């Protein structure tokens, strides 16, 4: 951004009082300029171009003028002349909104196949976080310099849940140039069908076999009927369509798919097709927590034929059965990127320890554990304990200098982000904050800059930006930033009254809302502890809040009272098991009641086998948070393993389940 624009912006920020470390953390009283910005926000949502153009002059000089100008320009980007687009980019050079508009413009250039314009503009694009844009860029690299972009293009395309123009285009282009083959395309179709994404599967088949792509819809609608009408699959395409049908059938009934594969289709498929299909059946059985999942995976003759998703489910199924040799071979077959994931490093190390034949193998396992051991997350903490160490709060980094704090306080992007959040434009503020900390420069801010930015957010009590920013530091770990304790008197008092560990309450709030007081989820959960309306009403009666009304749910004291009350009821119903109570808080109590059936397992293995990814990640993060909060609150060494325990069928068959628990 030009110097005079920076000066104007900082003067505007100073006038709001936002530069003061003592600025009010609550939403400020709106002035006329703020009202203009909020009116433009509504007009942008309605795509009211006339209203946006009329309001734009009134936003001049406001802290959020770049955002207002972006809305107005974005609404008419498809018809604006290039001269106007470049004028905008020059006016707001160096800002998030310059790069945001460039992102949008590049997408348009890609869709128009204006490769000369795209190639000229893409090097100026700083964020580099748009997957579709990256696919367009790979296509231009392949066209312009004959670069080898195949592996990156496949990785991006395979990771998309839905189809998009950019990644489909580069796949089609590479296929035309014989750089990716039919198997690559059919694998995309398999992945999409397994994910219940028929359009993406059809788009992949359309590249390889256009005349057959219509059959994908028939397969998705009724795979059993499709297979019943076909006895032989002679050609490669027909075999692959049968694989798609078996994949779709496995999602509905893995046992029926396994029976059909064994009786009819196995002899007709290639070894690679058989391996993939058996793995999908094993995955679906594992997702349903069926005990025969591992036996389906055992029919896979070559783990290298599988992708990382199937291999992770093979690991989970093997863990439930205590098959450590299979855990080891599956983790070894994963891609280099997945092999670095702390989850699979940990389980690979555990498998090596369980199967070690000599001291050298045990030493290799210990080295793997040391490579991830820290207080940063669930598996990192488990690795620490596996090495015989406790979990303690690390020493604070060196105090921030006045110069480091000043750099954050005068950063235009951070200040605009905070202002947007304070007047109610949280999504817009979050995006600019993330750009300023993560994407403005290659690699993002360094540790000291991140600590200073997090400190700024903490001082303003914008706790989610404080936590998320501090979480990104690599070496310097500041627990006061990563694990703040707003409303400490309320939380500790309420937890003490009902004999609930306050560290557990804080661990859950940190994951649920990041301490955003008025947080509301897409399903209607509200407040610090993200309580659903019906659950709040039921719990209020149980804990004696007879005067409770729905609008009180965002009151911090009421929300904490109801959230902790419900958590305590759930914890008691699950006999004090934090992992199961945490799963119940996220997914409802009936699901973990079913998930606990089967063998008695380490809770870490049980958690890794939770079918829902959201709940699986939630349980790990809440328990990891809880352990770190306990280290802060008690100043004593802590154990995550002690909180996890073992999980299996209900200890006492005679104990009553609280069936009223919502």
Describe it for me?
The chain has 662 residues and is mostly helical. Helix content is 64%, strand content 1%. The protein has 39 helices and two strands. It has a two-stranded antiparallel ribbon. Helix 35 (578-587) packs across helix 38 (613-634). It is globular. Mean pLDDT is 93; it is low at 1-27.
List the keywords.
662 residues, mainly alpha, two-stranded antiparallel sheet, 39 helices, 64% helix, 1% strand, disordered N terminus
Give the terminus-to-terminus CA distance: 53 Å
Profile the largest sheet: 2 strands, antiparallel
Strand content: under 5%
Sum up the overall morphology in one term: globular
Compute the number of helices: 39
User: Strands of the biggest beta sheet: in what spatial order?
Assistant: 1-2
Question: Helical proportion?
Answer: 55-70%
Mean pLDDT: 93
Write the SSE topology.
Blueprint: H1 3-16, H2 32-45, H3 49-55, H4 65-75, H5 82-91, H6 96-111, H7 115-121, H8 131-145, H9 150-159, H10 165-176, H11 182-194, H12 198-208, H13 214-221, H14 223-228, H15 236-252, H16 254-265, H17 271-287, H18 293-297, H19 308-321, H20 324-333, H21 336-339, H22 342-355, H23 359-372, H24 378-386, H25 402-409, H26 412-422, H27 426-439, H28 447-459, H29 463-470, H30 479-482, H31 488-497, H32 502-512, H33 533-542, H34 556-573, H35 578-587, H36 590-595, E1 601-602, H37 603-608, H38 613-634, H39 640-644, E2 646-647
Antiparallel strand pairs: 1-2
Helix pairs in contact: 1-26, 2-3, 2-4, 4-6, 5-6, 6-7, 8-10, 9-10, 10-12, 11-12, 11-15, 12-13, 13-15, 15-16, 15-17, 16-17, 17-19, 19-20, 20-22, 22-23, 25-28, 26-27, 28-29, 31-34, 32-38, 33-34, 34-35, 35-38
């Amino acid at each position: 951004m030009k110097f005079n624009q920076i000066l104007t912006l900082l003067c505007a920020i100073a006038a709001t009082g936002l530069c003061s470390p003592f600025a009010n953390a609550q939403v400020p009283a709106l002035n006329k300029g703020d009202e203009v910005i909020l009116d433009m926000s509504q007009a942008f949502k309605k795509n009211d171009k006339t209203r946006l153009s009329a309001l734009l002059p009134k936003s001049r000089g406001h802290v959020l003028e770049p955002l207002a100008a972006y809305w107005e320009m974005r609404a008419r980007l498809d018809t604006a002349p290039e001269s106007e687009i470049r004028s905008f980019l020059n006016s707001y050079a160096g800002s998030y909104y310059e790069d945001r508009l460039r992102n949008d413009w590049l997408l348009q250039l890609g869709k128009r196949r204006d490769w000369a314009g795209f190639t000229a503009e893409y090097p100026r694009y700083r964020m580099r976080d748009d997957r579709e844009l990256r696919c367009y860029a790979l296509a231009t690299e392949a066209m312009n310099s004959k670069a080898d972009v195949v592996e990156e293009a496949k990785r991006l395309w395979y990771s998309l849940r839905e189809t998009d123009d950019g990644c489909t285009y580069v796949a089609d282009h590479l296929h035309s140039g014989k750089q990716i083959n039919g198997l690559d395309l059919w694998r995309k179709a398999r992945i999409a069908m397994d994910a219940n994404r028929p359009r993406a599967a059809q788009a992949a088949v359309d590249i390889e076999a256009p005349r057959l792509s219509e059959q994908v819809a028939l397969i998705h609608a009724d795979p059993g009927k499709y297979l019943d009408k076909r006895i032989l699959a002679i050609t490669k395409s027909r075999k692959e369509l049968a694989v798609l049908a078996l994949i779709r059938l496995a999602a509905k009934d893995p046992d029926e798919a396994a029976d059909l594969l064994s009786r009819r289709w196995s002899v007709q498929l290639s070894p690679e097709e058989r391996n993939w299909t058996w793995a999908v059946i094993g995955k679906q059985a594992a997702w349903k927590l069926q005990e025969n999942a591992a036996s389906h995976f055992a029919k896979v003759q070559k783990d290298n034929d599988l992708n990382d998703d199937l291999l992770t489910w093979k690991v989970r199924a093997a863990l439930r059965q205590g098959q450590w040799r299979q855990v080891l071979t599956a983790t070894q077959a994963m891609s280099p990127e997945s092999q670095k994931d702390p989850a699979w490093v940990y389980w690979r190390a555990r498998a090596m320890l369980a199967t070690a034949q000599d001291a050298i193998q045990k030493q290799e396992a210990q080295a793997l554990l040391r490579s991830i051991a820290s207080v940063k997350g669930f598996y990192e903490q488990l690795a620490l304990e596996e090495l015989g160490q406790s979990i303690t709060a690390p020493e604070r980094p060196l105090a921030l200098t006045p110069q480091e704090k000043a750099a954050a306080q005068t950063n235009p992007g951070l200040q605009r982000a905070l202002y947007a959040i304070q007047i109610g434009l949280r999504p817009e503020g979050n995006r600019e904050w993330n750009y300023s900390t993560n994407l403005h420069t290659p690699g993002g801010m360094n540790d000291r800059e991140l600590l200073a930015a997090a400190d700024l957010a903490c001082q303003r009590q914008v706790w989610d930006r404080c936590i998320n920013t501090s979480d990104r530091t690599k070496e310097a770990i500041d627990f006061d930033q990563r694990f703040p304790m707003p409303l400490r008197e309320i939380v500790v008092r309420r937890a003490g009254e009902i004999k609930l560990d306050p560290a557990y309450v804080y661990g859950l709030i940190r994951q649920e809302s990041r301490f955003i007081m008025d947080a509301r989820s897409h399903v209607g959960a509200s407040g610090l502890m993200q309580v659903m309306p019906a659950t709040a009403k039921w719990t209020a009666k149980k804990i004696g809040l007879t005067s409770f009304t729905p609008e009180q749910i965002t009151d911090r004291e009421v929300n904490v009272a109801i959230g902790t009350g419900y958590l305590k009821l759930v914890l008691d119903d699950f006999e004090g098991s934090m992992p199961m109570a945490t799963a119940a808080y996220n997914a409802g109590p009936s699901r973990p009641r079913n998930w606990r059936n089967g063998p008695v397992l380490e809770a870490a293995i049980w958690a890794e086998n939770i079918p829902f990814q959201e709940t699986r990640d939630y349980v790990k993060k809440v328990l990891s948070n809880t352990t770190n909060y306990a280290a802060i609150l008690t100043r004593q060494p802590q154990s995550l393993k002690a909180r996890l325990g073992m999980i299996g069928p209900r200890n006492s068959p005679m104990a009553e389940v609280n069936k009223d628990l919502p």
